[in-house]
Batch of 3 targets.
Target 1
Amino acid sequence: MFSCYFVLVDGTNLILQTDSLMSVVFFHSKFFFIAYLIISTIVFINNQQTPCFYKFVAMLKKLLSLLAAILPFALHSQDIVQVDFTETAYDERYHKGKLIVPIFRYTSPEIEEYEKFGAPSKKALDKFTLKKLPDMTGCVDTAYGFIYYTGAPSNTNRGYITLLIGNYRRSWDKIAQLYVDRNNNLDFTDDGAAIAVPYFTEFIDIEFNHPSAEGGVYKVRLSRFPMDKDVKYRQLMDEFYQRNQGNKVFAGIDYSFKENRMNMKAATYINGADTFRIGLYDGNYDGLYTNAEFDLIYVAKQGDSIFLDDYRFVFQDGMKEAEFEWNFKVYKVTELDPAGRFMKFFWDKNAQSRRALKIGKKIPKFEFYLTDAKTVKKIKKYRKKGLYVYFYSLENPNIEEDTAVLRQLHTKYDNCLNIVTLNYGDYYKTLNAIKVLDAVPYTMGISNRRLNRMFNIEQLPTGFLCRKRLRLSHIGVTPKVVWELMEKGSKKE
């Protein structure tokens, strides 16, 4: 006879004991029923010898196949977390870029389409006609421009939304009025009220609501060029747009706008040492965040205001395989709101990092400058002993403790361990002064963004411990941990 019974441990774990001394542990109490169903079925099979026995076995196989497909998702259900994207976010191009919304004088309802960035072309530009103009009472001059937005329902002007500007000449006594054809139907009477742009306005935000996706919003920030700065640049832009925009009459860069595309949003995931920021990037500017061809997921350490391209992730196989990494852990996305309002994900403990260096493999070959900013060293020169590479900045709150342990490591284990410290972000003369005045005995060098990216460094400080021949043995270890490892190794010997 086949017999079995359940044992409840700590109120959460369920252990199945059988005659054959096999055991299975279920970690979530909500799966008791599934366990009971499977075991009851096995017992039934072993005790029944009826004509329908084989039919029941076939049914059981189907049931077990279904449970096998569902169980992995169910087991993760307790670990799935949700973050809401309510924070402002910027990529590294936001503050550096100089996108321009050029403004052209309005001469007739028939206007030419916009040629991206004024690229010269021999082909004549297509024309389209504005159907209805807004009430522009009080406006003494009129101009128009274009904002890129792909969420509009019409294909008119290849995704560019048309703007009308009344009183565009930036007069003290005439407030500029901005009219936006939000639905891209060339009718300015059904788009709401005008946006006032007084002379001293720092910027204005224009929002576009996606016509078919609830909550999908794309925002653009427009600002004017200061008339007392970048004189040569403004002259260059004047000449450029006058030459390369077909028959349109360029009003001048002083009356145009700088454009910042607010196509990112962020959330902070708080979980102790694994706390970090998550950013969503709308790569095709439609107010949605689930387009696998264009949209991206970014990560950054807590407190960072800028998301760097070094830590961005594409959708590997559409939304079915959306994932990202932080602190050498892989997180799988189970649900992402198309409008980017929330995301659900879990830490996949069985997944291997695609970016982390592999234990047992050699670290990449690289060169680095010493703190004198003149001498170049090759890392392969340190291959005859073990090697500890320590990346840091002087902002490290534990810098004094770490440097003290590094000195101890060098003093006791110099015969078998090389130490190379690589600083990122601090002035080399400050580092060189520390090297000389403090008589630092180990190698001090300078890191850079390329080198940090090579080691997939997300936050400082961090360290990499290698055996001989530069074979990696430990990732993300502090000097204190290296000391403990070396002490254990020396005791074994």
Note: The mean pLDDT is 84.
Target 2
Amino acid sequence: MAIPAAANVLRLGLDRVVHPQIEADDLNLVFLPATDAGPARLQLQAARMRLPSLKQTLREVSFECPPEPLPAASATSETAKASGDDSEAVVVPVWRCEGPLAWRGGRGWRLGIQADEALAQASIRLWQGSSEVALDLPLSGKPLALNARRVGVAWLNALAPQMRWQSGQVDASLSLQAAAEQPTQWRGTVRTRALAAENTAGTLSLAGIELSGPVTVRSGGDGAISIDTEPTIRSGELLAGSYYLGWPSASQVAVKLGLTGTGNDWELRRFELADTGVEVTADGKFATGEGAGVRALSARYRFDLERSYARYLDGAMAALGQGGLIATGRVEGRVELGEAGRLMAVDANLAQVDLRHPQGRYTLSGLDGSVALRRGEAPAPFDLAWQRLAVYSLAAGPGIIRGESLQGELRAREPVVLDLLGGRLVAGDLVVRPLTDAGSRVQTSLQVDGIDVAGLARAFGWPEFAGRLSGRLPRIHYDGDLLDVDGEIDMSLFDGKVVMDGLSIERPFGVAPALSADVRLTGLDLQPMTEVFGFGRIEGRLNGAITGLRLLDWHPVAFKARLATAESGRRRISQLAVEQLTRIGGGGAAAGIQGRLLGVFDSFGYRRIGLSCELMNDVCTMGGVDESGGGYTILQGSGLPLITIRGFQTRVDWPVLVSRLQAAVSGAGPTVE
């Protein structure tokens, strides 16, 4: 490759140049000899240049540089190399040419070409700022070698169009091995910095990926690509559907990956992941582009929950509204996915698993056993046992559930019995449908037998009162976000009956649970009820209804309540209870001369007591047994002294009314506002 000494301009025009590693159309080379005005110049222009191995096409390419000789280099002939005699070493002139390179959509790049006159060795260097690509050309039987440093990932959009490569940089050291009728093979190492990408379907996203490791990429003439790599992931984030996974800085996650694909159809030949407390292996098939998704996947897993739950499983649980769980224990098994990523089977073996909600909404301790979940027709048994189950402040003892899995359901063979507060909870006909896309995920009935009311009151921070709670919930449905109860819940309290109807709870274990129900009270004995709550003493029977009850995060936000005593039987009220009812009504002491006799009598007869409240927008509209004169009557007396209690504030802020009730329960005397 001697530079001509003549002063003539040399021009070479070629319609097309074809090489296994480069193609050019409408190629023009011009050599301009040195003049007094400047050094010699080499110009290159091409309408199109294509690099098949990198799947890159450049259009309107232009390059210009001044060729210059470098210090002489010593080269040894192939004959001398074969004989081991380097006496035949000769001096081979080496030339270099560096200058600006541009193409449609590409500016600011510089290109350097270096080669000896014998063309035994040649290299190309392309750079812009800190980004650089160097190629050792495949001359004299040597493979093409590529070294890249801090190269932006946009070029991957042509090489791997199944993903939208958005940002990040790549370092690479690769060599190309290509032979006629043989797949092209790149082999070497790759490192990424802050890599961000997403697939064309938007179901997979990567961000901040830092990894490095060996890689081999093979591509055939039929468009098939095979990738084998064993990188170490050091940081980054992954979002696949609703599943989120994050690796913090300085992670050391070992991955082994083998992929083969043609167009949008891919086979996952090999996947292995090893991290602190987790091992996963998988193989399967998936599609990219339009109609992207999993077609089949078989995976095996092993988790030490204390070390791996937060990183690898919390994202999946967060998608179910159960993020932030504290978990310990061990679980291992397998997962099978079918077409469109449909979950077909899950096997899980659990050992001493503990799960605790971060806000204490539930706790499950000492969970052992195995679960085999199947969509198919063949049944698979399951067996689970636990040491403790707590929902909010209610803690039950050990329990066990046995059954079988069939057609996506887990069905218990016998009732599940839990000991709770000296009584029992019996869940009958329990069916769990974790794979359902619609309808009930959990369905059961619940029998409540002999629950200690005093213990229940302690659990919820209420004043303690004696009694036993029994009842039946004929059918419970839970769909993952809504718990519904069919029929009525009957409870025997204070020698009367409380019936709850239309019970439903939205997000029972999620953020801001919302409860809806209607409640009826029939014949409750007021004497033990009022004495337990420190309200004083009222003798009589209480009836009433609370309709449209709605609690948000267990605090009332709406209801219509009306409570009234029965107009039969013994009806007496203590002096303290009179004062507390007066306080609730927002008034002063009882009116008239009878009011001055409160200190003389311990109790008084009454005809009826009634109180109503309609809560809406944090305001309670109050009423009583009757409304007149701008107020309402809470208590109508009977006999002498005749006591009447009236309320005059018909609209009361709910927090104010609650404070009055709390003061009444605490036994504090009334104040006039």
Note: The first strand starts at residue 10 and ends at 19.
Target 3
Amino acid sequence: MSITGGTSRTPDGRRAVIGLLRRLNSPEGQAEPYGILAELRTMGDVVRAPWNGYFVTGFDACSQVLRGRNWQAPDFAWQERQDDAKRWDALATREMTSTLARLNAPEHTCQRRSLGNLFDRSTIERLTPDVERHADRLLDELADKLRWGEADFVSTVSEQLPIHTIGSWLGLPPEDYPHILEITHNQVYAQELLPTSSDLAVSAEATVQLRAYFTDLVARRRAEPRHDVLTGWIHTWDALEPDREQADEILYRLTMFVTIASLETTATLLTSMVSLLSAEPGRWEWLRSWPEHIDAAVDEVLRYDPPIHINTRIAAEDTVLGGVPIEKDSMVHVLYGAANHDPRRNPDPGAFDILRGGSHLTFGGGVHYCLGAALAKLEARTLLARMLDRFPALRTVSPPVYAPGWSSGASPRWAWPCEALAARFPELLPGRDARDPGREPHDPGREPHDAGREPRAPEPGARDSVRDARDGTEPARWCRPVRGAERPRHRERGHRGDARRAAGRRRRAGPRGAGAGAQRRRGRLLPGRRPRRVRGLAGGGSGRAGHPGRR
């Protein structure tokens, strides 16, 4: 496969890239990012960013960066070499820079080896009964809520399965799960494409709470050892690091990182999986008839709709990528969604095809390959198998609802130094006046970028309405992640009246028990009425028909 160079540093090229970034950071870009990413890819496999960096859009070029040894994580040493090192002083950024995903050799090698192969085949086999038990219990709760009235699929199932899985594995107290979920959601504000100052303030507060919680957890486990993973890590680092204070600091970072890296991305994967598979007529029934393709379905969801979109690497030396000279210390931003939809690697990438047999880069590559990839796939295939069996006729009855905030997610790769860019490039904020970033001017001449396009399957984090035709339960309404009902910037897609009504529904639903921040990803199951069906799975038959085809 060939890879091509990117745009030159010209005013027209810079304006074109800025225009695409504005669209990606808009509600329309949230609902339909892949058309915009395809436009970016037409500029080249390596496209110059408005700052000292490059976007990498082609599959082969992204793979080269992720797996190459001449590309490094943006660690403290790199930040200190920058002209304005204070740009990286946000609390959440500095805290995450000290975690495994931002380390380079030899520190990264030492810490990763101390963990061993976290989720090898034997560990996955031991965890499988626990994941099955958690999934069955959560689906019981979902079915009960559907019978009695309103329910929220995301807060009932897709957010709960990851925290129960990793929580029981690490020995976290179950009563702490709501608190961990809330501060994890709030911490990832700093990972938005272009966070606001209020985003960073929320993230900073959550970062302080994460440190307090996991530092105390390590101290309590030292005082009361158990036969569990964390106690084993304590013994390992007591042998490796004679300084007890330094050992506890490393243990805090590892435990915190492994926990939060297991939550946000997996919850998004689980929700997108059910949404995509129930979005087209016959797809759910076909997979129920051919369960041997469940693993292939999970892989296609990971390709089509990756839970994270961006990962940053630094050139360790002067090099050439895709025909473009890259100077040492320059940032390159790997775009997973663009790479996975590269037609040279995956023909007809906009089609969701379970039998595609394609490839994706969603779990990264090289020394920073996702630690929890096997665990995430275990949770996904277990939940999907259970849902196919218990809810055989899911029906999509309303389109997904989206909220702004193009995020890299709470992922094993905290790689986008966004907080340093938002202040320098206010023109990238959608609908914002560069002279007054807080003002949203009226722009009647601007046409929606996706006007006239064919509707597509839900994008990352999308939530559709679904209906189980077997037992008569009523529709489930699913929403894209909403980071707090009180935050005006994160209103749902549509007219302002629709946004106010949606906010009212969220307020009436009440918090999940963890405060207003828990309103994120709020969706409800409404009894007694059936919304107008937009796309759905027809009938409840489950004959072993042929492959339902691609979108």
Note: The two ends are 26 Å apart (CA to CA).
